[in-house]
Write a structure and sequence with these properties.
11 helices; membrane; Nod_factor_ABC_transporter; about 260 residues; mainly alpha; two-stranded antiparallel ribbon
Length: about 260
């Protein structure tokens, strides 16, 4: 059968399976993140350094749930490091948009949902690296004491909690231009960590600050991440975590739909 010169058979341009999710793109994304010195320093080294800087303080051997205070702090630093890493991975969409890479991707059969899914997978892998780094340093330090299965449970739960901040990173990446995204997310997450009880337990705050903390994005995930250790998980902490995750996902999807609608 003869075809007209210059035309393209639509059947020859098939939509890739799984919307375009593939290991090659994932490998490229991971390699790019690992080559970023800022990411390595501020999301992998900095939280572990914070854990070391807290070492030797009085009260670290006090009991905290099924372990001690040192274990409580270790889980908190793991969450902080993983949140920074996941948010950094998600916010890379801001740089890609400024360079025109997102516009280039829109010319391919890549599904926008698949694009966000790959960003989320990269954020999870980077979050796992941050959690591992903090836990290895904590194990070498030798201060943290908790059962091995609790140690593992806290690490796994913390990893899934980082999905909230991956969504936050994507959301901010679609709102803030260029490299300004991480300049906002870095100090912002530090402030949220202070308010959410990651760096300082909430019982040391005043009643006013504590009631504000209950509404912050970091509070719910921090309580969930530490729940295998503390064996305490208020229902309103779960509601907080689910609500903020939904807000960030909806916000990221909304901004992504606005961005992909441009021709």
């Amino acid at each position: 059968m003869t075809t007209t010169t210059g035309t393209i058979d639509p059947a020859a341009r098939r939509v890739p399976p799984f919307g375009g999710v593939n290991t090659t793109v994932l490998r490229i994304e991971l390699r790019r993140m690992l080559r970023n010195r800022r990411t390595i320093i501020f999301t992998l080294i900095f939280p572990a350094a914070l854990l070391l800087s807290f070492g030797g303080q009085s009260g670290w051997d006090d009991k905290a749930g099924l372990g001690n205070v040192a274990a409580y702090i270790l889980v908190s630093m793991s969450l902080y490091g993983a949140a920074l890493t996941a948010a950094a991975g998600g916010s890379m969409v801001a740089l890609e948009r400024s360079l025109g890479w997102s516009r280039q991707l829109r010319l391919t059969p890549l599904n926008p949902v698949a694009y966000i899914l790959m960003k989320t997978l990269v954020a999870l892998v980077m979050g796992a690296l941050a959690i591992t780094a903090v836990n290895v340093v904590g194990a070498i330090q030798g201060k943290a004491e908790m059962p091995t299965h609790i140690w593992f449970e806290c690490a796994v739960v913390t990893l899934f909690c980082t999905l909230t901040f991956a969504a936050l990173g994507v959301f901010v990446g679609y709102v803030v231009p260029g490299e300004n995204a991480m300049q906002i997310l870095g100090p912002g997450l530090a402030l949220l960590s202070f308010l959410g009880g990651v760096f300082i337990p909430l019982d040391q705050y005043s009643d006013v600050v504590r009631h504000v903390a209950y509404w912050t994005p970091m509070y719910g995930v921090a309580e969930i991440a530490r729940s295998p250790l503390t064996r305490e998980l208020p229902w309103y902490a779960v509601v907080n975590a689910v609500a903020w995750f939904a807000i960030f996902v909806v916000g990221a999807a909304w901004r992504m739909s606005k961005d992909t609608a441009r021709v």
